[in-house]
Amino acid sequence: MKKINVVGTSGSGKTTFSRALAQRLNVPCIEMDALFWKPGWTQSTDDEFFAKLAEALDCDTWVLDGNYSRTTAIKWKDVDTIIWVDFGFARTMWQAVKRAVLRVRDQRELWSGSGNRENLRMLFSRDSILLWTLKTYRVNKKRYRALIQNPQYAHLRCVRLRSPTQCQAFLAECSP
Protein backbone atom coordinates (compact mmCIF):
# COMPACT_ATOMS: atom_id res chain seq x y z
CA MET A 1 0.00 0.00 0.00
CA LYS A 2 1.55 3.21 -1.19
CA LYS A 3 -1.36 5.33 -2.42
CA ILE A 4 -4.50 4.95 -0.37
CA ASN A 5 -7.88 6.71 -0.54
CA VAL A 6 -9.99 6.49 2.61
CA VAL A 7 -13.67 7.09 1.84
CA GLY A 8 -16.90 7.09 3.81
CA THR A 9 -19.89 9.20 4.72
CA SER A 10 -19.36 12.40 6.71
CA GLY A 11 -19.10 11.44 10.36
CA SER A 12 -17.88 7.91 9.64
CA GLY A 13 -14.45 8.55 11.10
CA LYS A 14 -12.50 8.58 7.85
CA THR A 15 -10.36 11.59 8.81
CA THR A 16 -9.41 10.13 12.19
CA PHE A 17 -8.66 6.79 10.53
CA SER A 18 -6.71 8.44 7.67
CA ARG A 19 -4.50 10.34 10.09
CA ALA A 20 -3.82 7.23 12.17
CA LEU A 21 -3.02 5.18 9.04
CA ALA A 22 -0.72 7.85 7.60
CA GLN A 23 1.11 8.10 10.92
CA ARG A 24 1.40 4.31 11.14
CA LEU A 25 2.79 4.11 7.59
CA ASN A 26 4.86 7.28 8.00
CA VAL A 27 3.40 8.87 4.86
CA PRO A 28 1.65 12.21 4.22
CA CYS A 29 -2.06 12.49 5.00
CA ILE A 30 -3.90 14.66 2.49
CA GLU A 31 -7.31 15.93 3.55
CA MET A 32 -9.50 16.78 0.57
CA ASP A 33 -11.63 19.21 2.58
CA ALA A 34 -8.49 21.23 3.36
CA LEU A 35 -7.80 21.47 -0.38
CA PHE A 36 -11.39 22.37 -1.24
CA TRP A 37 -12.39 24.94 1.41
CA LYS A 38 -10.90 28.41 1.24
CA PRO A 39 -11.11 31.05 4.00
CA GLY A 40 -14.59 32.29 4.81
CA TRP A 41 -16.14 28.94 3.87
CA THR A 42 -15.59 29.75 0.21
CA GLN A 43 -15.58 26.75 -2.09
CA SER A 44 -12.81 26.24 -4.61
CA THR A 45 -13.83 26.07 -8.23
CA ASP A 46 -13.39 22.64 -9.80
CA ASP A 47 -10.37 23.90 -11.75
CA GLU A 48 -8.72 25.18 -8.55
CA PHE A 49 -9.63 22.06 -6.60
CA PHE A 50 -8.49 19.61 -9.28
CA ALA A 51 -5.16 21.44 -9.64
CA LYS A 52 -4.56 21.44 -5.86
CA LEU A 53 -5.46 17.76 -5.66
CA ALA A 54 -3.22 16.76 -8.56
CA GLU A 55 -0.33 18.69 -7.00
CA ALA A 56 -0.88 17.14 -3.55
CA LEU A 57 -0.94 13.64 -5.03
CA ASP A 58 2.28 14.17 -6.99
CA CYS A 59 4.43 12.13 -4.62
CA ASP A 60 5.30 8.46 -4.12
CA THR A 61 3.13 7.65 -1.10
CA TRP A 62 0.10 9.13 0.62
CA VAL A 63 -3.14 8.55 2.44
CA LEU A 64 -5.93 10.61 0.89
CA ASP A 65 -8.91 11.40 3.09
CA GLY A 66 -12.10 12.20 1.26
CA ASN A 67 -14.87 11.45 -1.17
CA TYR A 68 -15.65 14.18 -3.74
CA SER A 69 -16.87 11.80 -6.44
CA ARG A 70 -16.14 14.29 -9.21
CA THR A 71 -12.42 13.81 -8.48
CA THR A 72 -12.38 10.02 -8.94
CA ALA A 73 -10.47 10.21 -12.23
CA ILE A 74 -7.72 12.25 -10.56
CA LYS A 75 -7.47 10.54 -7.19
CA TRP A 76 -7.85 6.96 -8.42
CA LYS A 77 -5.47 7.37 -11.36
CA ASP A 78 -2.55 6.06 -9.28
CA VAL A 79 -4.29 4.76 -6.17
CA ASP A 80 -3.62 1.14 -5.18
CA THR A 81 -5.92 0.80 -2.16
CA ILE A 82 -9.41 2.04 -1.31
CA ILE A 83 -10.45 1.84 2.32
CA TRP A 84 -14.15 2.33 2.93
CA VAL A 85 -15.00 3.27 6.53
CA ASP A 86 -18.56 1.98 6.58
CA PHE A 87 -20.04 2.06 10.07
CA GLY A 88 -23.74 1.62 10.74
CA PHE A 89 -26.09 4.59 10.48
CA ALA A 90 -26.60 5.09 14.24
CA ARG A 91 -22.86 5.05 14.94
CA THR A 92 -22.11 7.40 12.03
CA MET A 93 -24.80 9.89 13.09
CA TRP A 94 -23.64 9.77 16.71
CA GLN A 95 -20.05 10.48 15.63
CA ALA A 96 -21.19 13.33 13.34
CA VAL A 97 -23.24 14.94 16.13
CA LYS A 98 -20.44 14.54 18.68
CA ARG A 99 -17.87 15.99 16.30
CA ALA A 100 -20.09 18.95 15.35
CA VAL A 101 -20.87 19.80 18.97
CA LEU A 102 -17.19 19.62 19.96
CA ARG A 103 -16.17 21.79 17.00
CA VAL A 104 -18.76 24.43 17.91
CA ARG A 105 -17.78 24.33 21.57
CA ASP A 106 -14.02 24.42 21.01
CA GLN A 107 -14.05 26.79 18.02
CA ARG A 108 -11.08 24.98 16.50
CA GLU A 109 -9.96 26.04 13.06
CA LEU A 110 -10.84 23.09 10.83
CA TRP A 111 -8.04 23.42 8.27
CA SER A 112 -4.86 25.32 9.06
CA GLY A 113 -4.84 28.81 7.62
CA SER A 114 -8.49 28.74 6.54
CA GLY A 115 -9.95 30.47 9.60
CA ASN A 116 -13.00 28.22 9.10
CA ARG A 117 -14.78 27.24 12.29
CA GLU A 118 -18.19 25.70 12.81
CA ASN A 119 -20.86 27.58 14.73
CA LEU A 120 -24.36 26.88 16.05
CA ARG A 121 -26.03 28.61 13.12
CA MET A 122 -24.25 26.24 10.73
CA LEU A 123 -25.42 23.20 12.69
CA PHE A 124 -29.05 24.09 12.11
CA SER A 125 -28.86 25.53 8.60
CA ARG A 126 -29.79 23.81 5.36
CA ASP A 127 -26.02 23.38 4.81
CA SER A 128 -25.59 21.57 8.14
CA ILE A 129 -23.05 18.77 8.19
CA LEU A 130 -25.60 16.77 10.19
CA LEU A 131 -28.23 17.20 7.50
CA TRP A 132 -25.59 16.35 4.90
CA THR A 133 -24.81 13.12 6.76
CA LEU A 134 -28.51 12.24 6.90
CA LYS A 135 -28.98 12.93 3.19
CA THR A 136 -25.87 11.16 1.94
CA TYR A 137 -25.52 8.09 4.18
CA ARG A 138 -27.58 5.68 2.06
CA VAL A 139 -26.51 7.26 -1.24
CA ASN A 140 -22.83 6.87 -0.35
CA LYS A 141 -23.33 3.28 0.78
CA LYS A 142 -24.88 2.44 -2.58
CA ARG A 143 -22.25 4.37 -4.51
CA TYR A 144 -19.25 2.79 -2.77
CA ARG A 145 -20.72 -0.69 -3.00
CA ALA A 146 -21.09 -0.17 -6.77
CA LEU A 147 -17.61 1.33 -7.15
CA ILE A 148 -15.82 -1.49 -5.39
CA GLN A 149 -17.73 -4.01 -7.52
CA ASN A 150 -17.00 -2.11 -10.75
CA PRO A 151 -14.69 -4.18 -13.01
CA GLN A 152 -12.89 -0.94 -13.93
CA TYR A 153 -11.46 -0.93 -10.38
CA ALA A 154 -10.88 -4.68 -10.02
CA HIS A 155 -7.11 -4.09 -9.90
CA LEU A 156 -7.44 -2.03 -6.69
CA ARG A 157 -7.29 -3.47 -3.21
CA CYS A 158 -10.62 -2.59 -1.59
CA VAL A 159 -11.00 -2.85 2.17
CA ARG A 160 -14.34 -2.29 3.89
CA LEU A 161 -14.12 -1.56 7.62
CA ARG A 162 -17.46 -1.77 9.42
CA SER A 163 -16.51 -1.06 13.03
CA PRO A 164 -13.94 0.72 15.17
CA THR A 165 -12.64 -2.72 16.15
CA GLN A 166 -12.00 -3.59 12.49
CA CYS A 167 -10.28 -0.21 12.01
CA GLN A 168 -7.98 -0.84 14.98
CA ALA A 169 -7.19 -4.36 13.79
CA PHE A 170 -6.37 -3.08 10.30
CA LEU A 171 -4.08 -0.38 11.72
CA ALA A 172 -2.34 -2.95 13.93
CA GLU A 173 -1.55 -5.05 10.85
CA CYS A 174 -0.04 -2.14 8.93
CA SER A 175 3.65 -1.42 8.94
CA PRO A 176 5.74 1.13 7.08
TrEMBL record:
This protein's record includes keyword Protein biosynthesis: no
Gene3D superfamilies xref list: P-loop containing nucleotide triphosphate hydrolases
Molecular function, one GO term: kinase activity
Record protein name field: Shikimate kinase
Family annotation (InterPro entries): Cytidylate_Kinase-2, P-loop_NTPase
UniProt keywords, alphabetically: Kinase, Transferase
Organism: Gilvimarinus algae
